[in-house]
Specification:
Fe cation binds at residues 176, 254, 334. With 373 residues, this protein is α+β, with helices and mostly antiparallel strands. It has helices spanning 39-48, 81-89, 103-112, 151-155, 186-197, 239-247, 262-271, 281-285, 287-290, 298-304, 346-362; strands at 12-14, 29-35, 52-57, 62-67, 70-75, 92-100, 131-133, 139-144, 156-158, 171-181, 200-208, 213-220, 227-233, 251-259, 307-311, 317-323, 332-339. Strand 16 (317-323) and strand 17 (332-339) form a beta hairpin.
């Protein structure tokens, strides 16, 4: 492969649907829960990514790691859903949570709309946090909006002396997360989020690399804070299919974490030992022609391998992004800075896809093509 070109505009389109009524009172992501048979490796990863262990569950083997308004839970319980999930998937994201106006009312409405409720063990003086079955058997919790005592105040003991800012690298919000799906399942999961949570489709992509391809449907909640692109492979060799084989099922593919200064954040993460996916120099050679008037130092982006996308000349703003290598099994992270652009870096999708394809070639997953040789 000699260059990375922006995605063909014929392959992507915005989908204009009016925002739905927010019946659930959705208000962003509350947390994502991870598990592993080697929990200290995840604990070390979270610390390197700028998160601090600020709380330990009162009765369960669960830790809370926090940075900005992002919460990661590390669940090491030996029994129950998390143990079953860990046994099947290995290092994984076994749950996520949405903030809602009224958790019990949201659960009732979700079940009325066809969701499957999940029962969990609740200890003395602990909150009973409603949950439904989500992607790949992961739990999807419904957590009351903050306003007074939070779930962390009630269910967790604070770590003495620890603060959210102890290891901060500038990450403040979970911007979006993606789902990798079995082929033919995009309609099912799109309907799941539309029917239960009033999500709407905002973008659709048909992405083709040198050897493989994928479809991606970007969904957003009525609050516009919970965004979940759904990815489905076009063939049996793509990164989506490799993920599903490695993960042994559908699940969260990557989590995008927002910063207000991606250059400083990436420098800190690299200093902490976080490894990022590479992009060839040809990508950076094309930036000025592809995005005239972007106003950023291309050499500084090249040095850090930070990608850029947007439409600055037509008022579409910019976004800057970079992707880590796989960090939790096949799950990786995205670092993103939005500067007036609400997309997902679709101009970079083909670049990212082909970069991942090159990695697959190096690892012998797919054969080299004339372009990638």
């Amino acid at each position: 492969m000699n260059d990375l070109t922006p995605i063909d505009t014929k392959q992507s389109h915005g989908v204009q649907k009016a925002p739905a009524v927010n019946h659930m009172g959705l208000d962003g992501f509350e947390f994502v829960e991870f598990t592993s048979s080697e929990p200290e490796a995840l604990a070390d990863l979270f610390t390197k990514m700028g998160f601090t262990h600020v709380g330990t569950h009162r009765s369960k083997n669960v830790r809370r790691y926090a940075q900005g308004d992002i919460n990661f839970l590390l669940n090491m319980e030996p029994v129950g859903q998390v143990a079953d999930f860990r046994g099947k998937h290995g290092p994984s994201a076994n749950a996520m949570a949405f903030r809602v106006a009224d958790a019990n009312a949201a659960l009732k409405l979700a079940v009325e709309r066809g969701a499957t409720p999940v029962e969990g063990r609740v200890g003395p003086m602990e909150l009973n946090i409603p949950a439904i079955e989500g992607i790949g058997g992961a739990n999807l919790y419904l957590v009351d909006k903050r306003g007074g005592a939070t779930i962390y105040d009630i269910d967790f003991e604070p770590v003495p002396g620890a603060t959210v800012a102890d290891h901060d690298v500038g990450l403040h919000t979970l911007d979006h997360l993606t789902h990798n799906l079995q082929r033919g399942r995009m309609a099912y999961w799109g309907d799941y989020y539309e029917r239960i949570f009033d999500f709407r489709e905002i973008r659709y992509f048909d992405i083709e690399g040198q050897s493989t391809g994928l479809f991606s449907k970007a969904m957003t909640a009525p609050d516009d804070k919970i965004r979940i692109p759904l990815n489905e492979s076009q063939d049996e060799h793509s990164q989506i299919e490799e993920f599903i084989r490695d993960y042994k099922g559908e699940g969260i593919q990557h989590l995008a974490l927002a910063t207000d200064d991606i250059f400083a954040t990436v420098d800190k993460l690299r200093a902490n030992g976080i490894r990022f996916q590479d992009s060839p120099d040809s990508y950076f050679d094309m930036i000025d022609a592809r995005l005239p008037g972007h106003g950023h130092d291309v050499e500084e982006m090249r040095k850090r391998r930070i990608l850029i996308d947007g439409a600055p000349e037509t008022g579409g703003g910019l976004l800057l992004q970079i992707f880590t290598e796989n960090m939790v099994g096949p799950i990786f992270f995205e670092i993103i800075q939005r500067k007036g652009n609400d997309g997902f870096g679709e101009g970079n999708f083909k670049a990212l896809f082909e970069s991942l394809e090159l990695d697959q070639v190096r690892r012998g997953v797919i054969p080299a093509t004339k372009e990638s040789a």
